[in-house]
């Protein structure tokens, strides 16, 4: 049986992935929420691990007994928006960068050596990394960093396939807080299907829903001034 470790498995996309892989693999499902971890621990083929991805010692301690992994999925993350760019909230910026970017470094340090030759590393970024979006100075920067990190690891890692996931909007507790329209939002089930299919095909860039992400990728090709002009419409 393949061994798959998933961070952020207690909710949303990570939970969908944990439930999918537990049908055919052995899953290490990681998170902080005690109740959700207890629930996961009752499932077949699943070991729930309590860890905080912003605390290297917590990762090392929770994962000390893991010997090898076939697939490492770094999915845990958080989103907070900067409401007033002029009066920049440095503490918020630090929180988001720690949760979404520095955490990847901490997880990689402990867990990447455990990934087998010909195994897979999957980093969940966001389609927010494609373009500068309003109020996303912290979240977007953390995800642009995550994408760069994944792509740069893909250059250097010879025997491990690296995939970066760029979801559009997925209906999860994270996006339930959003106070703006979420065009073409998909369910966790749809996200799970797109991500697991991409992982099975060892795709380098897993992005969905295509009708949304392809528009963003196209806009990304335009001169930055065109996007800055168009983005004024989004802000209104
Ligand atoms: N939903 C979307 O539209 C969307 C779009 C693009 C990208 N993404 C990315 O997809 C990933 C999953 O998001 P989601 O929508 O599924 O969110 P979610 O339902 O809020 O789940 C977030 C998960 O991350 C875990 N987590 C957060 N901070 C953590 C920490 N410090 N230590 C350990 N675990 C931590 C949470 O665990 P605990 O609650 O147990 O701490 C939870 O399991 C994130 O990286 C997010 O940025 C989501």
From TrEMBL:
<dbReference type="InterPro" id="IPR020904">
    <property type="entry name" value="Sc_DH/Rdtase_CS"/>
</dbReference>
<dbReference type="InterPro" id="IPR036291">
    <property type="entry name" value="NAD(P)-bd_dom_sf"/>
</dbReference>
<dbReference type="InterPro" id="IPR002347">
    <property type="entry name" value="SDR_fam"/>
</dbReference>
<dbReference type="GO" id="GO:0016491">
    <property type="term" value="F:oxidoreductase activity"/>
</dbReference>
<dbReference type="Pfam" id="PF00106">
    <property type="entry name" value="adh_short"/>
</dbReference>
<dbReference type="GO" id="GO:0016020">
    <property type="term" value="C:membrane"/>
</dbReference>
<protein>
    <submittedName>
        <fullName>Short-chain dehydrogenase</fullName>
    </submittedName>
</protein>
<keyword id="KW-0560">Oxidoreductase</keyword>
<comment type="similarity">
    <text>Belongs to the short-chain dehydrogenases/reductases (SDR) family.</text>
</comment>
């Amino acid at each position: 049986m393949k061994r798959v470790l998933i961070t952020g498995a207690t909710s949303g996309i990570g939970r969908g992935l944990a439930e999918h892989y537990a049908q055919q693999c052995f899953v290490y499902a990681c998170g902080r929420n005690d109740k959700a971890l207890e629930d996961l621990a009752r499932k077949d083929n699943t070991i729930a691990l309590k860890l905080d991805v912003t605390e290297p010692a917590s990762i090392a301690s929770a994962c000390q007994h893991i010997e090898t992994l076939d697939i490492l999925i770094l999915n845990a993350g958080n989103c907070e928006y900067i409401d007033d760019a002029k009066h920049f909230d440095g503490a918020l910026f630090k929180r988001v960068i720690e949760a979404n970017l520095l955490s990847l470094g901490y997880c990689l340090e402990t867990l990447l050596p455990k990934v087998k030759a010909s195994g897979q590393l999957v980093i969940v970024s966001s389609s927010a990394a494609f373009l500068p979006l309003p109020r996303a100075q912290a979240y977007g920067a953390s995800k642009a960093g995550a994408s760069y990190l994944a792509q740069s690891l893909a250059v250097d890692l010879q025997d491990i396939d690296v995939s970066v996931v760029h979801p559009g909007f997925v209906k999860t507790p994270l996006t339930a807080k959003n106070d703006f329209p979420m065009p073409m939002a998909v369910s966790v089930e749809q996200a799970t299907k797109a991500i697991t299919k991409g992982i099975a095909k060892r795709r380098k860039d897993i992005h969905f829903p295509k009708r949304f992400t392809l528009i963003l990728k196209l806009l990304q090709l335009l001169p930055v001034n065109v996007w800055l002009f168009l983005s004024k419409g989004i802000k209104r």
